[in-house]
């Protein structure tokens, strides 16, 4: 049945109301994104310095000290995968990308005979992993919009405790790395054991712009590098997780801003289509009325 002018007008009003909501959400996401970008820019130099210091101390120590947090297990049989995403949706493929990356990595490990346990930061990955019937050991929710360092420390303590207790032999993290509001890249990093950590990646010193940090000369450690390394490793795990949380937050705001902008543009196109449909219906009614008037006049003549 053809839509009447009233039906089309009601649909236009509904789409306009939705467009107001999407535009408001876009502006909110843009404001939060600017704050998230500032936090990332403030953290990156410190995070890079911690990573360099940890790597340099480990190399200076030679054989990594036989401490529980620094001991590499005899074999990698149990892997813990930390998936970082958001608490809310309406952000395009932001959440699903992180979940897919974690699940794909879990399948790779299981294909090699390893046991996989999942940790989730964010309500969306926690529910998605549980829906898939995967083993979610612990989930951390309620802070994806504005994570604090205490949140990263809580996650790090849980992961390090599981590693020290032998519940897992390796810890990996998956998150959306922030590049720009329109561009996020999925990142996979190994946090523990230190011997396999991404901190030893040859590109670890590259900052967000791809520039290398200057190389330093030889360093004398006081106390010895083993003692410094023992103190640095927990900080390295915490700051790596905190950086992932901030990068994920900025990526979420950027993805939501882009998604809401696209939704607003689609609403504008839909309004134009409905307006055209309504005008055609009005013209058809006018034409019908004119035809009836002419027919009536001819009948009277």
Summarize the structure.
This protein is of the alpha/beta class and 301 residues long. It has helices spanning 5-61, 94-111, 123-131, 149-164, 225-300, and strands at residues 78-84, 115-121, 136-140, 170-180, 183-192.
Structure description:
The chain has 301 residues and is an alpha/beta fold. The chain has 2 domains: 5-26 and 258-300, Helix Hairpins; 33-209 and 218-256, Pyruvate Kinase, Chain: A, domain 1. It contains 5 helices and 5 strands, in the order αβαβαβαββα. The protein has helices spanning 5-61, 94-111, 123-131, 149-164, 225-300, and strands at residues 78-84, 115-121, 136-140, 170-180, 183-192. The chain has a 5-stranded mixed beta sheet, with helices on both faces. Strand 4 and strand 5 (183-192) form a beta hairpin. The radius of gyration is 28 Å and the shape is elongated. The protein starts with a helix and ends with a helix.
Keywords:
301 residues; alpha/beta; single chain; Helix Hairpins; five-stranded mixed beta sheet
* SSE order: HEHEHEHEEH
Oligomer: single chain
| CATH-defined architecture of the largest domain | 3-Layer(aba) Sandwich
Helix content: 55-70%
Q: What is the CATH homology-level superfamily of the largest domain?
A: ATP synthase, F1 complex, gamma subunit
Count of separate structural domains? 2
β content, as a range? 5-15%
CATH top level class name of the largest domain: Alpha Beta
């Amino acid at each position: 049945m053809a839509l009447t002018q009233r039906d089309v007008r009601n649909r236009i009003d509904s789409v306009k109301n939705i467009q107001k909501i999407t535009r408001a959400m876009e502006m909110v996401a843009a404001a939060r994104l600017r704050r998230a970008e500032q936090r990332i820019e403030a953290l990156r130099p410190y995070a890079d310095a911690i990573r360099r210091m940890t790597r340099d101390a480990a190399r200076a120590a030679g054989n990594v000290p036989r401490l529980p947090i620094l001991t590499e297990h005899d074999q990698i049989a149990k892997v813990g995968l930390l998936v970082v995403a958001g608490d809310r949706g309406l952000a395009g493929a932001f959440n699903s990308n992180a979940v897919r990356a974690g699940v794909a990595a879990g399948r790779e490990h299981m294909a090699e005979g390893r046991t996989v346990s999942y940790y989730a930061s964010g309500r969306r990955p926690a529910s998605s992993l549980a829906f898939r019937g995967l083993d979610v050991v612990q989930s951390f929710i309620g802070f994806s919009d504005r994570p604090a360092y205490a949140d990263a420390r809580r996650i790090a303590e849980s992961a390090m405790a599981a590693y020290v207790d032998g519940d897992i032999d390796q810890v990996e993290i998956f998150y959306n790395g922030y590049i720009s509001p329109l561009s996020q890249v999925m990142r996979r990093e190994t946090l523990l054991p230190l011997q396999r950590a991404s901190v030893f990646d040859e590109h670890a010193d590259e900052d967000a712009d791809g520039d290398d940090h200057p190389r330093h000369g030889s360093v004398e450690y006081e106390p010895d590098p083993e003692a410094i390394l023992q103190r640095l490793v927990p900080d390295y795990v915490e700051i790596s997780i905190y950086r992932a949380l901030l990068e994920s937050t900025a990526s979420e705001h950027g993805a939501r801003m882009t998604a809401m902008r696209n939704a607003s543009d689609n609403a504008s196109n839909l309004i134009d289509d409905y307006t055209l449909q309504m005008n055609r219906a009005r013209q058809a009614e006018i034409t019908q009325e004119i035809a009836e008037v002419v027919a009536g006049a001819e009948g009277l003549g």
